[in-house]
Task: inverse folding
């Protein structure tokens, strides 16, 4: 018996010693600073960059997993992961270092790029990306992957191959993005820089995300567009949404990449609209319908859209209903597409309203329509429809898991406001219930994929 007790003590001692030194190793790894040289490889003309602080993310998750929350047995069983069935490829990427994600464009050909440090360039060289719209390049220390549109021209692919090669060389230009992202706060998990366009209300926006217990918070600062007189701007705004579950999106001019997506959707209805300067949209969900033998994704929303040119909504609707059998004109201010009735209204010569609520309240507002995001993101995943595609979409695991994550939110609001020194401040919260830890909820969400 004494021998057995002694053996147990030895085993426990070894176990505790192993845990101790493992903890020391993890803490020492996470407390060392990341290599900051990668930021010098950003391209000169970049408009949008996200810095992902992997080291701080790992540190936050490990701390919360050890001290703030536990993963239940059922949640582990949901993984359904068998190492014998799946072989995870070695990419050669050093995930303990920062990763930069950026967007750029050349002659209307947009690109999303990823920059990261390498720990094994040979493994990265063998990492397969056999798609013509994916460009990969690397040297001894830096790796780069560019994602082009699926229909990218050969000219664009050739251009971005040279573009990617240039990214391997340090860029000595004093970029605004480089200056902003070099001053990330210590506990920042993500850091976004958005330069903005000449017509955008907010420019040179720098915003960071943090996690503390049940809350993911956002803090940032931007500059007012000096060409716009904010006090003299007047616009119309909807006061409240029609439904309890909604996501409100108030934003300025959309990026070209978003316009290209919208243009593809509108092509099916033979509609060509001016560019949107700003908009306020209440999103309630989507209807997946069958229109003349083809699948259509019909949004359920109420939205005010402000354009850079005058637009006559009645003329646009007349042309749409005359030339497209999918659109049925029901009244002077009402059309039907599939099973959804849309109402519309001309507000000013450059402002229109269109939506699913017949008598929504619209008021005149002083000042520029500054960006805001509030409500529940789960509204974007509320899918309706009777067909097999709609039923499949409703049961699709990523949709179910995302809805579960968002429905666990107690509060979600990211908004902007003018400050006394003519800057624009961004603040926001994505808050779970008090008994939930934000980092653990996100980790459990990612574990399901």
Result:
């Amino acid at each position: 018996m004494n021998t057995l007790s002694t053996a147990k003590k030895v085993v426990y001692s070894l176990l505790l010693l192993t845990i101790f030194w493992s903890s020391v190793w993890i803490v020492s790894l996470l407390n060392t600073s990341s290599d900051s040289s990668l930021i010098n490889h950003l391209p000169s003309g970049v408009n949008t960059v996200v810095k992902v602080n992997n080291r701080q993310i790992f540190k936050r998750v490990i701390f919360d997993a050890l001290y703030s929350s536990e993963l239940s047995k059922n949640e582990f069983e949901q993984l359904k992961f068998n190492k014998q069935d799946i072989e995870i490829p070695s990419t050669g990427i050093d995930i303990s270092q920062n990763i930069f994600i950026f967007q750029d464009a050349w002659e209307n050909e947009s690109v999303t790029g990823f920059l990261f440090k390498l720990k094994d360039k040979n493994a990265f060289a063998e990492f397969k990306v056999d798609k013509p719209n994916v460009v990969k390049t690397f040297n001894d220390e830096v790796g780069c992957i560019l994602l082009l549109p699926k229909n990218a021209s050969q000219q664009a692919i050739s251009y971005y191959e040279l573009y990617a090669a240039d990214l391997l060389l340090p860029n000595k230009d004093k970029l605004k993005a480089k200056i902003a992202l070099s001053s990330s706060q210590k506990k920042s998990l993500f850091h976004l820089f958005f330069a903005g366009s000449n017509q955008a209300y907010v420019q040179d926006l720098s915003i960071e995300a943090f996690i503390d217990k049940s809350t993911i918070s956002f803090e940032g600062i931007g500059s007012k567009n000096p060409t716009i007189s904010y006090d003299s701007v007047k616009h119309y705004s909807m006061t409240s949404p029609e439904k309890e579950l909604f996501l409100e999106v108030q934003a300025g001019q959309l990026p070209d990449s978003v316009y290209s997506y919208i243009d593809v959707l509108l092509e099916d209805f033979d509609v060509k609209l001016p560019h949107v300067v700003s908009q306020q949209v209440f999103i309630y969900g989507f209807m997946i319908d069958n229109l003349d033998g083809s699948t259509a994704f019909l949004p359920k929303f109420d939205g005010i859209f402000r354009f850079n040119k005058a637009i006559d909504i009645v003329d646009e609707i007349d042309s749409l209903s005359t030339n497209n059998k999918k659109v049925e004109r029901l009244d002077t201010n009402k059309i039907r597409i599939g099973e959804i009735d849309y109402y519309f209204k001309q507000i000013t010569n450059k402002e229109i309203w269109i939506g699913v609520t017949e008598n929504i309240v619209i008021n005149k507002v002083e000042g520029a329509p500054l960006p805001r995001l509030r409500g529940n993101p789960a509204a974007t995943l509320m899918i309706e429809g009777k067909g097999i595609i709609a039923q499949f979409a409703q049961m699709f695991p990523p949709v179910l898991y995302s809805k579960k994550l968002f429905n666990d939110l107690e509060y979600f609001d990211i908004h902007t406001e003018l400050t006394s020194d003519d800057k624009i401040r961004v603040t926001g919260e994505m808050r779970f219930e008090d008994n939930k830890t934000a980092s653990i909820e996100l980790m459990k969400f990612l574990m399901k994929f």
In short: The longest helix spans residues 2-31. Residues 210 and 217 are 5 Å apart (CA to CA). The radius of gyration is 25 Å.
